[in-house]
């Protein structure tokens, strides 16, 4: 895709600080460095988001994530954990529409990154949960 910033990075038209590259993925430091070592893993093939992956591409891309995550963790003894995030669609905070996986090293609870999950469990009876599960299962069987 000609105007995609990540495709331009893959083609080396835009500089990036690469930490890993092979025939399937490119991993480079996010320019925001939300936390030190914040890395993006992208498929070299342009796909906008997870909904455009097929099983082969997903296996190829996601199988590389542990290797890169372990290298990031090993690179800095101060790293205590890591968030792995994949945002899909504008409402899910995707801002670059070329699929990418954020590897965010965590140092402390106050290191500049946070996630918050609402607890709506009081609104969901077992029957309501089963209705949602059945709708998803129906799509998996289609």
What pattern of helices and strands is seen along the backbone?
HEEEHHEEH
- What do the pLDDT scores average to? 96
The CATH architecture term is: 2-Layer Sandwich
- N-to-C CA distance: 31 Å
Look at the helices and sheets and give the structural class.
alpha+beta
- Helix % is 25-40%
**Contiguous uncertain segments of 5+ residues:** none
The coarse silhouette is globular
* Fourth CATH level, the homologous superfamily: HIT-like
Return the CATH class. Alpha Beta
**% residues in beta strands:** 15-25%
**Largest sheet, if any?**
5 strands, antiparallel
The spatial strand order of the largest sheet comes to 1-2-3-5-4
Q: In total, how many beta strands? A: 5
Number of domains: 1
List the total number of helices.
4
The fold-level CATH name is HIT family, subunit A
Question: What is the radius of gyration computed over CA atoms, rounded to a whole number of angstroms?
Answer: 18 Å
Motif (Histidine triad motif): 98-102
Active site: 100 (tele-amp-histidine intermediate)
Pfam families: HIT
GO molecular function, one term: catalytic activity
């Amino acid at each position: 895709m000609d105007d995609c910033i990540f495709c331009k990075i893959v083609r080396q038209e835009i500089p990036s600080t690469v930490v890993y590259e092979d025939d399937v993925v490119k991993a480079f430091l996010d320019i925001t460095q939300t936390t030190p070592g914040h890395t993006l893993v992208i498929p070299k093939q342009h796909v906008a988001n997870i909904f455009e992956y097929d099983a082969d591409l997903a296996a190829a891309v996601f199988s590389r994530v542990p290797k890169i995550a372990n290298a990031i963790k090993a690179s800095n003894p101060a790293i205590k954990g890591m968030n792995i995030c994949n945002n899909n669609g504008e409402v899910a905070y995707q801002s670059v529409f070329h699929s990418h996986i954020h590897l965010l090293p965590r140092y402390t609870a106050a290191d500049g990154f946070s996630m918050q999950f609402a607890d709506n469990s009081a609104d969901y009876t077992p029957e309501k949960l089963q209705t949602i599960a059945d709708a998803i299962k129906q799509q998996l069987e289609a």
